[in-house]
Design a protein that fits this description.
about 850 residues, 22-stranded antiparallel barrel, 4-stranded mixed beta sheet, about 50% strand
């Protein structure tokens, strides 16, 4: 999916974490749901998947993005946020083909955050607490970024495959190995993948086959140190010669010690695939039975030894947290195809029944006083289990679908598609279980018309439009039911004893219905000058109605520990334009190609609120200090930033007296906040406003390539604009924390300024406001590749069909005004764009080879 960044219109791929093995966040044509999920559906050789991290990209033959409702309709309700259709490589009739590829590279931090050094920080602290540092010449200077981030972290990817086939059967077998070591110590990801695809014509009328991937993986998750190394005082030593060997960092802890005492690992075994049988029937009919599965078993363990670095950083007992998780997702499809051609008429039909089931189980247990030793003792019986911290959960979900699709083509010019689905879900009550979702599409291939055929410059010209509805019910099982909490102990009796009890806990909503997305799409495809120039343009308009939203209910209803209940309570609209252009030509022996694409995204909550007493908005975006910085409300984009507008800095007592002030304790040098309603004061209820959105309004990409005598040079760029990022790591300050370099221009009595406030440890200058809001716009040189294709005469002598070598840089450079590690900041859709200290994105420089025998 990262390879699609800047290469496909209408799709946003956010690499919000550089942690080894981290998956990007994918959004197709914006954010259409508030709480029912916005991830696309992945379909790999017919298998429905939520996560494709187990799939080896070298096994992929093609990827297709289905964006409009008509194209995605056949995949049902799970495709309401778009579909990523993946086809893996298959064997072909002919001799045995062996492919080998290998890539080895190094990763490095792309840029450092410009923070104060030890002396600068000490000077600032002395302004807050005079006399803290008496001799600035003796202040240490620790660069925590240099201390933590390692250079030239290794990344490698190797695979070998073989494929062949005959008239009756074909096979593909692929073996891959991937390992990534992170730029933070003790973080890595390792995966082995085995892919086998087999097809056999048992009879003229019977075909069977299977597509299976098995992928064991291991990972070591990094200590959560990025936010703390950002805040840690640079005026202390990283290491000392006594005690634990680590210098004491007040409040936030020593990041190096956090890494040292963080020990965790996770093992995952994934198996994905399907088996199928296909029967050819008389009169153009064909029947296909398919059983697909996505099974995962995972084990995780985290061990923290007994240690003491400082009063703020210690662990009194050695602890072990172990987890088990298992999921089994299965799909059973019965499909009947029909194909018929009569003269200029061509009809393709499909009818089917699909049964889908999800089972998830999770177990977490905790033990203390673990026996010291190696990893062989990281088991619960090596210590004392804590029963109150042992939890086990499970969920079950079923979906049944009945669907039909008809494609009609007349004279290879006029195209019509109609799809109708009936989907049922176990997430809703019996009366509301089934939803009905139609869609239609029309196409006109103008280039086949006589009045266009005579225009030599036009090779392809097609108009298309579509309309359709898709449902979404992805809110988790059980929200229609009222629950009882059986974990409520009470003391009573003679003598007083602790007794287990149960009580009303969460109210269910049996009236929940399907969240429905209605989308209109109009498009134009153009191919000119022997298709050297291609243009693809689209307009889309998607309205999500009856959106499933968790709303607060009054406390007197006795809603237990749950404060929110799901309602169908919002309408959301996403609309915009998509344009993709490509040009490819040749000048003598020089091949060149140019490409550009752009997508506009307009996201708005059209209406919000249920027909019961409830919220008119949802607050989210927690910073971890009790402050939320986003609000979702009618008239605004989902998850918009919400807070105070700044209006400069109070320069003196006279300006303070003139006000208005946020509170009476403000001093000269503090931020002046705007009195939006003009009542002479700044208050929480009347003077906060919407400050910007984390959703970009424009996504773009462009590429260029040159080929000459076996050499090929290509560059791919991606970017976005119109979104904002909240620098949350600068806002969370439970104690004296470091500052970014802009505080060198802070307000001081002898050097007043109007952009950066005076030095304070926290307080009013760090409330939610536009002071910590920055532009998230950027342009990135995503990849730069120089390849050389070995001449055929040379490869033939080496008994190779083809061979190439290449040098590649990834995330080479980023142009942005954002001061953090990366302007790609993920998060949940109600709390996106908040940087609390993300694992930095790395630049990768690699060398690789591709060989076919």
């Amino acid at each position: 999916m990262q390879g699609l960044q800047g290469k496909a219109a209408g799709i946003q791929v956010v690499s919000s974490s550089g942690a080894p093995g981290a998956s990007p966040k994918v959004r197709i044509r914006g954010v259409g749901s508030i709480n029912a999920g916005n991830d696309p559906l992945y379909v790999v050789d017919g298998v429905f998947m939520k996560d494709i991290s187990a799939i080896n990209s070298s096994d992929i033959e093609s990827m297709e993005i289905l964006k409009d409702a008509s194209a995605a309709a056949i995949y049902g309700v799970q495709g309401s946020n778009g579909v990523v259709l993946i086809t893996t490589k298959q064997g072909k009739e002919g001799k045995l083909i062996i492919n080998f590829s290998s890539e080895v590279g190094v990763q490095n931090l792309t840029n450092k955050i410009d923070l104060l050094n030890g002396r600068q920080f000490a000077e600032l602290v002395n302004e807050i607490n005079p006399g803290t540092y008496n001799n600035l010449n003796l202040v240490p200077n620790t660069d925590w970024q240099d201390e933590v981030f390692r250079k030239n972290a290794l990344i490698q990817n190797h695979q070998i495959s073989m494929s062949s086939g005959s008239k009756t059967s074909s096979y593909y077998l692929g073996l891959g190995y991937f390992r990534q070591d992170g730029i933070i110590p003790k973080s890595n990801y390792e995966r082995v993948s085995i892919r086998t695809n087999y097809n056999m014509n048992v009879k003229d009328w019977l075909k069977v086959g299977t597509n299976i991937t098995v992928a064991p993986s291991t990972s070591q998750n990094p200590a959560d140190v990025v936010g703390n190394l950002y805040r840690a005082s640079p005026a202390v030593r990283a290491r000392i010669d006594t005690g634990s060997g680590f210098g004491e960092v007040p409040v936030y802890g020593n990041p190096l010690a956090s890494i040292k005492f963080n020990n965790n690992r996770a093992n995952v075994l994934s198996a994905i695939g399907n088996v199928f049988a296909e029967v050819s029937l008389p009169k153009g009919f064909r029947y296909r039975f398919s059983y697909g599965f996505d099974v995962l078993y995972g084990r995780s363990v985290s061990y923290t030894p007994e240690f003491f670095v400082s009063p703020a950083q210690n662990n009194a007992t050695s602890d072990l947290v172990t987890g088990r998780n298992w999921h089994n997702y299965t799909t059973l499809d019965n499909l009947l195809y029909y194909n018929k051609e009569v003269g200029k008429h061509r009809i393709d039909g499909l009818g089917g029944i699909s049964i889908y089931r999800e089972i998830d189980e999770n177990l977490t247990a905790v033990a203390e006083n673990i026996i010291r030793g190696n990893t062989n003792l990281w088991y619960l019986n090596s210590g004392q289990v804590v029963p109150s911290l042992t939890t086990e959960t499970a969920s079950l979900f079923h979906k049944a679908s009945f669907f039909g699709r008809l494609n009609y083509v007349f004279d290879e010019k006029y195209l019509f598609t109609a799809t109708y689905r009936v989907d049922g879900t176990s997430n809703f009550s019996k009366n509301n279980r089934f939803g009905r979702f139609p869609s239609v599409a029309l196409g006109w291939l103008l280039s086949q018309e006589d009045f266009i055929k005579d225009i030599p410059a036009i090779n392809n010209l097609k108009l298309r439009t579509s309309w359709g509805k898709l449902g979404n019910q992805n809110i988790g099982a059980g929200n229609q039911f009222t629950l009882i909490n059986n974990g409520l102990p009470a003391v009573f009796g003679q003598p007083n004893t602790l007794n287990q009890g149960a009580s009303y806990d969460r109210a269910g909503n049996p009236n929940l219905i399907w969240e429905t997305s209605t989308q209109f799409d109009a498009g134009l495809e153009i191919g000119l000058f022997q298709n050297r120039l291609t243009i693809d343009a689209d307009y889309y308009n998607r309205l999500t109605s009856d959106a499933l939203v968790p709303l607060t209910r009054p406390a007197h209803e006795g809603n237990g520990s749950f404060t929110r209940i799901f309602y169908n309570a919002a309408n959301i609209r996403n609309s915009g334009f998509e344009l993709t252009t490509n040009w490819a030509d040749k000048i003598g022996k020089l091949d060149y190609r140019l490409g550009a694409l752009g997508t506009t995204v307009k996201n708005r909550v059209v209406s919000f609120g249920a027909s019961v007493q409830s919220d008119e908005f949802i607050t989210d975006g927690p910073l971890g200090n009790g402050t939320n910085v986003t609000r979702t409300q009618a008239g605004q984009p989902i998850g918009s930033f919400y807070g105070y507008q700044t209006n400069g800095i109070f320069q003196n007592d006279a300006e303070l007296a003139a006000g208005p002030r946020l509170n009476p304790d403000q001093l000269p040098g503090d931020i002046r906040y705007s009195d939006l309603n003009g009542d002479g004061r700044v208050d929480l209820n009347n003077d906060r406003t919407f400050l910007g959105s984390p959703i970009p309004t424009f996504l773009y990409g462009f590429s260029a390539g040159l080929g000459f005598k076996g050499f090929d040079l290509s560059a791919d760029f991606q970017g976005q604009s119109g979104n904002m990022i909240y620098n949350g790591k600068a806002a969370v300050r439970p104690g004296l924390a470091n500052y970014e370099a802009n505080y060198l221009d802070r307000w001081q009595p002898n050097r007043p300024g109007n952009t950066v406030p005076r030095a304070t440890a926290g307080g009013d200058n760090f409330v939610a406001s536009d002071f910590l809001l920055q532009s998230g716009s950027f342009m990135r040189l995503r990849t730069l590749t120089l390849a050389y294709n070995i001449p055929k005469a040379v490869s033939d002598r080496m008994r190779m069909q083809k061979a190439s070598i290449y040098l590649r840089g990834t995330n080479v450079f980023t142009w942005t005004k954002y001061t953090g590690y990366s302007p790609e900041v993920g998060g949940g859709d109600l709390s996106a764009g908040i940087d609390l200290g993300i694992y930095p994105i790395s630049a990768v420089y690699a060398i690789g080879i591709n060989v076919s025998f």
